[in-house]
Amino acid sequence: MYMMMKHLHMTAVVLSVLLFVLRFIWKQMNAPIMQRKWVKVVPHIIDTVLLASAITLCILIAQYPFVHGWVTAKVLGVVTYIVLGFGALKWAHSKGMQWGAFVLALATIVFTFKVAITKQPLLF
């Protein structure tokens, strides 16, 4: 069960990040595809799977946010990524702010990935 959830979670992470990057590129190009219904719905489905698999993994390994530092760091990283993602795709109006939020969102994902691999909440 653990390995299945871990692989589902990792797949959802990859799909979520790839779709975020793709949507950001489309936004920068003012591509009409951004108005398609699936572009607005699919990210929510993927992120729901991501959240459900994360909660299941926490229960399976008995490691919880605000109890174990590395899980807390991952949760805070994901929340930061979500806020920066909203900034890049919706809130920021200038191209500079959009790009800044986009780059910071990707840096946050790299940090969160590092924490997931090392189980250490520190940068070094």
Automatic annotation (TrEMBL):
One of the Pfam families matching this protein, by short name: SirB
Species for this entry: Alteromonas arenosi
TM segment ranges: 43-63, 75-93, 99-117
Keyword annotations of the record: Membrane, Transmembrane, Transmembrane helix
Protein name: SirB2 family protein
